[in-house]
Amino acid sequence: MPFRVYPPAFRKATLCIGAASLAALLASPVSSQQAASPVARYDMDVGTVTGLAAMGGGMGAGLSMMFGGGGQKQAHELILRLGSSRTPAAGAPKADHFMPPVAKLGASVPLLTPKPGTRTDDVPQELPKDFQRPKGRLLIYWGCGAKAGPGQPVIIDFAKLTAGQVPPDLFAGSMPIDRSVHTGNSKTYGEWPNTDTRKLVGADSSLIGEHRIAGNYSPEIKFALAQDFMPAITGKASPIAGGATQISWNAVTNATGYYAWVMSAKANSKGEFQDMVWWSSSATRQFGGALWDWIAPAQVARLIQQQVVMPPSQTNCTVPAEVTASGGEFALGNLYAYGPEANFAYPPRPANTKTPWKPEWTARVRYRSNSTWLLNGPDMNAMMRGGDDAEAPKKKKKCKGGLGGLLGAVVTGEGC
């Protein structure tokens, strides 16, 4: 599974659905047109990444497959998934995505069907024998402002949580359910990046032009893209009077909305994490899930109305002073600019809503731009410049405060 910048506990926070969500994919909210399930569905997630995630140091195979190589401070992310209701016509499953020359990925990239038991995003059915219940607490804050709002923080005791004592009404609102293609809703499935290919998506790669997906278990899919990778999102985090932190960023072309979160942790003298702090820019108690993924423009618009996502006109947000005071010396921050979405289908939807629609295939291309940085550390612009002040924390034997181990795991894969 490609690397994504969010905690492993939330890797499957947004389970995908298949045919049951077809109406959301193929029909408008007011349409009563009958639509059959397509034989094949194709997802293409297109991202621009800056900050820590784009620095490429020590992230291992996941980053090397997804991001441009070397010391690039801006990287491109490309995730491809093909799902079909058919089995292979002959032999083992085989499919390829044929790219335009400007993609600089060769004539095509293979969509590999994972072998049973090899997927890294599967949730274990039982805890390992050496599992130790986590200690400490999680303090949850939300909303832009110099001071935390009423009712904050919500405190979660990890010991009670693992014992099944979940606080009531933990998260407010309801997040949209992602309907991405995956193994569970496909008879045959293929993906890229994968364990067999190590091609890099360069910072100078482009997706403009004709795309073709062909294989032995799905009909041929063809579409043309006019939207390229989104511009990079950059910015800075600045302490302000009273202990709060102001984060600001550039207005990203074609952005439909913005979302930010910060995580930090304090450790004792033994390097063991005690209190962890989690803050979200949402005005309500809404965290994770689809907010860490690609979100359709219509869903973003709804989330803006609910004050979960910031509007595209907003380019700054204040992290409350309590977040910095409760967390460690440094904090890991993430900022998302959600982007447009392109949808294709064959045959096209009939203009007459009374005519049943039986598409052979559908394809969805989603865009976003995001950046990962250190709050109260080097700002996002400094990391993109690649100066000496932009270096990530080096490996330490003990985590005596700040995010030593957490940042080590996320940035270098080495821990404390």
Word description of this protein:
This protein is mostly beta strands. It has one domain. Helices cover about 10% and strands about 30% of the residues. It contains seven helices and 16 strands. The strands form three sheets. It has a nine-stranded mixed sheet. A four-stranded antiparallel sheet has the order 4-3-8-9, with no helix packed on it. It starts with about 20 loop residues before the first helix and ends with a helix. The N terminus and C terminus are likely disordered.
Residue fraction in strands? 25-35%
Summed up, the domain count is: 1
pLDDT < 50 stretches: 1-30, 56-72, 120-124, 387-416
Instruction: Let me know the largest β-sheet.
Output: 9 strands, mixed
Overall average pLDDT: 77
Radius of gyration: 22 Å
Question: Fraction of residues in helices?
Answer: 10-25%
Element pattern in H and E? HEHEEEEEHEEEEEEEHEHEEHH
How many individual β-strands? Answer: 16
Report the principal-axis shape: elongated
Which sequence of strands runs across the widest sheet? 6-5-13-12-15-16-1-2-7
Question: What is the count of helical runs?
Answer: 7
Keywords: Signal
Region (Disordered): 109-129
Protein name: GH16 domain-containing protein
Biased composition (Basic and acidic residues): 118-129
